[in-house]
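Backbone description:
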Amino acid sequence: MAEQITLYYKHALSQIGNPEHGLSIDEINRLGDKIAQITTKMNKDRQAGKLPYRDLPYEDLIRRRVTDLAGKLKGKYETMMVLGIGGSALGNIALQTSLNSPMYNLLPDSKRPGPRLFIIDNVDPVQFGSLLDYLESRLDKTLFNVISKSGRTAETAAQFLTVQEMLRKKLPNAKLTDHIVATTDAKSGTMRGIVQKEGFASLEVPDGVGGRFSVLSDVGLFSAAMCGVDIEALHEGARDMDQRVKKADLMENPAALYAAIQYLFYQKGKPLSVMMPYSYQLKDLCDWYRQLWAESLGKEKDLQGKVVHVGPTPIKALGATDQHSQVQLYREGPNDKVFTFLEVEDFGQEVTIGSAGQVEELSYLSGQPMSKLINSEKHGTEYALLQSKRPCLTVRFPAINAYTVGQFIYLFEVATSYMGELLDINTYDQPAVELGKEATFALMGQEKYQLLKQKIQPVCDIDNNFLI
């Protein structure tokens, strides 16, 4: 198995110089029996169909379905727009950023492996309206992929209704079926009903897989396939990581070890988890991780119904950018954080730093590879944090490609499952999200929520006595 990503944990140990802010090997090993029990339970749950996300990389049907549709549509469109939010968008964004050029949308058609891709995961009228203005003159060459399991998510529904109306007005002689692909529940729901009525091509949101765990399904793979990403390699990387994270031995299982370290630090008063990639390509995988970690692990009650209010808070930083905006806090502020660096050995492209000429103070940079500079920035920041007794982990990428990104995604999905088991909470629900959704329905005038609207308005209406 070539190009394996690895977890380096030495700098989370008490040998960083202060036992109070590091872990001993004995502390980690004491979780070994618990991890073995969790592994056995998770394997049984998986066999019983309770962890369907674990089997997505083995689903040949998913790859065939996505590949077949992408094959039929490729070459027909200059632009593609994904409509979704949360788990229906963050994984798509992460795959595009990590596996295609940062200048992808600016490349000429001859150098782009697919249509320009825009993934709109919000309903900001300026952002959405600006993109619609851009697309207006090229609608006939634009494909829209609406992603919603139910079809009732207000943000995605609003995006979809707006785009559908625009297509009808601007392209009155065109078929909507030529411009819309829906990714939704296979059998039921509002969007599935629309698909059946309108005849849209459709893909499936898998049963029992929450949005934050769905990137390796049709949800994330279709836009990736349309833009030239090797989705078989993504699944292959995930399958190979699965062989590593099925092991019951804590010290041989990177997902279990990552979760165990995070859990032990959480118990020691470090509830903040900072992920800091030293690679622009990996920055949006951190956004994906933030949802995965936050929505899965932030829970009011444990599995016995006891109020516990647990959950580590995920934080995103970008090296070297955030050395100049966040590291001051990270070194001298509260020692309540665990740092996970993402490091790349081979960037696949190199820039040689230009000559300093007569400027002697900058001559140390002349002729050096920029990859050496960014990795030196990583090691320098890590060293500085360690001098301040801040524990650090590193996930090392030998290279960034579909195979290693597939490994990373699967590693952190399974690590999230282990962390949820250690915290004794339901990793896969998100009950706290529902009230905000219902409040939005009420304020937008949905009839069944009018009583809720009456409760909301006195709270949300502006009281001029409190304006200054």
In short: The chain has a mean pLDDT of 96. The first helix runs from residue 25 to 29. Residues 51 and 192 are 24 Å apart (CA to CA). The chain is about 45% helix and 15% strand.
